[in-house]
Amino acid sequence: MQTLKNLLTQIQEVGDLKDLETLRLQVLGKKGVLTQEFSALKKLEGKEKTQKAQELNTFKEAFVRVHASKKKELQDLELEAKLRAQAIDPTLANSTLGSSLGHPLSYTKDRIITYFTQQGFKLHVGTLVEEERYNFDMLNMPGYHPARDMQDTFYFKDHKLLRTHTSPTQIHAMQTQKPPIKMIGVGPTFRRDYDTTHTPMFSQVEGLVVDHAQKVHFGHLKQVLEDFLHDFFGGVKVRWRSSFFPFTEPSAEVDISCVFCAQEGCKVCKHTGWLEVLGAGCVHPAVFKHAGLENVSGYAFGLGIERLTMLTCGINDLRSLFETDLRLLEGF
Ligand code: DAH
């Protein structure tokens, strides 16, 4: 019985939950002291047995009670220590996050918007859910045009879709403003695409200039875009290649000399020394007709914000720009 009494003192001195459990097993476990004492009862008889059994039960009750309160005390201490270790002091100054330029995509977008609005272009945002005719038909892309395929475009019911480019902002501008018009349409666009250089959502900038007949020509377009590219990329060479877009005639694609290898040849420019950066052209007469304009001339251009960001930040997997990993974003 003396050993049992000692156990009650011992339990008070236990310092953590693991030791407390060891002690509990030493007493109440299958081979525990108390368990053995209880089974030894069968060797006793009569009054002696009753008395011993009472003593053991009283001790068991005491042990269970002391154990429970010790356990609670240790659990509280453990929780307190854990909370103290995790405590955040919201008044502390943050030493790791310095001032920032923001996300590379927002930074690029803001730079482009600032540039063109300073040149007198009015900013349009347009709507992301577009009518099919604004996204395609009125831009001279009739029903059989491959871009209208379900594979490429996110369609809704009732001839509505998620705009696949910012070019519909051209039509809205021409329908709501009188020439001279000078606008950029900026914002998200959507296509069913996903690989290292394509994501289902991406952003474009559309430019449109419309004035009375013969006032605007390809030479103006060339000047405006070359000025922009020199401002944006610094001392690069600019190359114009004739191309095709349904909504412009003539149409061109514009390349800059590779910003990664100075035209020595590298993986990014596929050893050509040139990087394609935008599409442009003079507004097709059919587009003016659909927008209800007569005796006007104009040019348009379109560029991808992600593409320009990848080129300025040296990123080869576009998807990394959409992961909110601060360590990666801090690297730009
Ligand atoms: N809408 C075209 C696209 O998504 C980009 C574009 C090319 C816009 C030429 C234009 C243009 O206005 O003239 O790929």
UniProtKB/TrEMBL annotation:
<feature type="binding site">
    <location>
        <position position="249"/>
    </location>
    <ligand>
        <name>Mg(2+)</name>
    </ligand>
</feature>
<dbReference type="GO" id="GO:0005524">
    <property type="term" value="F:ATP binding"/>
</dbReference>
<dbReference type="InterPro" id="IPR006195">
    <property type="entry name" value="aa-tRNA-synth_II"/>
</dbReference>
<protein>
    <recommendedName>
        <fullName>Phenylalanine--tRNA ligase alpha subunit</fullName>
        <ecNumber>6.1.1.20</ecNumber>
    </recommendedName>
</protein>
<dbReference type="InterPro" id="IPR004188">
    <property type="entry name" value="Phe-tRNA_ligase_II_N"/>
</dbReference>
<dbReference type="InterPro" id="IPR010978">
    <property type="entry name" value="tRNA-bd_arm"/>
</dbReference>
<feature type="domain" description="Aminoacyl-transfer RNA synthetases class-II family profile">
    <location>
        <begin position="115"/>
        <end position="311"/>
    </location>
</feature>
<keyword id="KW-0067">ATP-binding</keyword>
<keyword id="KW-0648">Protein biosynthesis</keyword>
<dbReference type="GO" id="GO:0005737">
    <property type="term" value="C:cytoplasm"/>
</dbReference>
<dbReference type="Pfam" id="PF01409">
    <property type="entry name" value="tRNA-synt_2d"/>
</dbReference>
<dbReference type="Pfam" id="PF02912">
    <property type="entry name" value="Phe_tRNA-synt_N"/>
</dbReference>
<keyword id="KW-0030">Aminoacyl-tRNA synthetase</keyword>
<dbReference type="InterPro" id="IPR004529">
    <property type="entry name" value="Phe-tRNA-synth_IIc_asu"/>
</dbReference>
<dbReference type="GO" id="GO:0004826">
    <property type="term" value="F:phenylalanine-tRNA ligase activity"/>
</dbReference>
<dbReference type="GO" id="GO:0006432">
    <property type="term" value="P:phenylalanyl-tRNA aminoacylation"/>
</dbReference>
<keyword id="KW-0479">Metal-binding</keyword>
<comment type="similarity">
    <text>Belongs to the class-II aminoacyl-tRNA synthetase family. Phe-tRNA synthetase alpha subunit type 1 subfamily.</text>
</comment>
<comment type="subunit">
    <text>Tetramer of two alpha and two beta subunits.</text>
</comment>
<dbReference type="InterPro" id="IPR045864">
    <property type="entry name" value="aa-tRNA-synth_II/BPL/LPL"/>
</dbReference>
<dbReference type="InterPro" id="IPR002319">
    <property type="entry name" value="Phenylalanyl-tRNA_Synthase"/>
</dbReference>
<keyword id="KW-0436">Ligase</keyword>
<dbReference type="GO" id="GO:0000049">
    <property type="term" value="F:tRNA binding"/>
</dbReference>
<keyword id="KW-0460">Magnesium</keyword>
<keyword id="KW-0547">Nucleotide-binding</keyword>
<keyword id="KW-0963">Cytoplasm</keyword>
<dbReference type="GO" id="GO:0000287">
    <property type="term" value="F:magnesium ion binding"/>
</dbReference>
<dbReference type="InterPro" id="IPR022911">
    <property type="entry name" value="Phe_tRNA_ligase_alpha1_bac"/>
</dbReference>
